[in-house]
Structures are given as C-alpha cells and as structure tokens.
Design a protein that fits this description.
mainly alpha, 56% helix, 5 helices
C-alpha cells in the first residue's frame, strides 16, 4: 500500500505537486469520509466502520493505512484512530469547500 506523496507521480500529475498529491489522497474513495468522521475525536475501527456506512473492512484498512502513511491519521496506543495535527489542518482547510458546496446545492435547487 502506497499513499500518494508530493514529489512523485500521482493521479493527474507526473510531477507530484503537493496539491495534486493531496487531491489524489483525498480523492480516493472513503478518504474524505474517514477524515470527516474523525473530526470530533478518535474512533475505534468498528465504530469508524459503522459511521462510514458499514464500508468493507478491507477498504477501511487500506484507506486508514494510506492516511496513516500520509500522517493525516494516527493509530493511537488504545488502537483507535484520530486526526494528527496535519489531519486537523486538512479538515479546517476543507470547511470552506463544505460551505461552498451547500451554497452550490441551494443554487442548483433554485
């Protein structure tokens, strides 16, 4: 399992610019959902799986491995998973996009 990293080829970029590497990481299925579910604090594997709509355990393990490798999520001593400082920064950076998406949805409904 290899997570996208800045400086190497990633989806959409042969140069691996940091933004493209981040978009590749967060564009992977379930990655943003995991980040979102951990925003309020650490969760154990089963609780996180349940919060993610009972996604398959193999996919959750893979995504958690990528997010841990990317230093966005950490596995804590009690085996739960939580956001790292980088993960909390990513969540904060995504909040304006979430607000924009709400306005966008309202505009499309009008």
């Amino acid at each position: 399992m290899t997570a996208p990293k800045p400086g190497g080829p990633v989806r959409g970029s042969t140069t691996g610019r940091p933004l493209m590497a981040a978009l590749d990481l967060f564009g992977r299925r379930w990655s943003l959902r995991i980040l979102w579910e951990l925003r309020e604090g650490p969760l154990g594997f089963r609780a996180l799986q349940h919060r993610c709509g009972d996604m398959s355990s193999s996919v959750l393990r893979q995504r958690l491995g990528e997010l841990v490798e990317s230093r966005v999520v950490a596995q804590l001593p009690d085996t739960s998973y939580g956001l790292t400082p980088l993960g909390r920064d990513a969540y904060q950076a995504l909040r304006p996009l979430a607000r924009w998406s709400e306005r966008w949805a309202e505009e499309l409904e009008a």
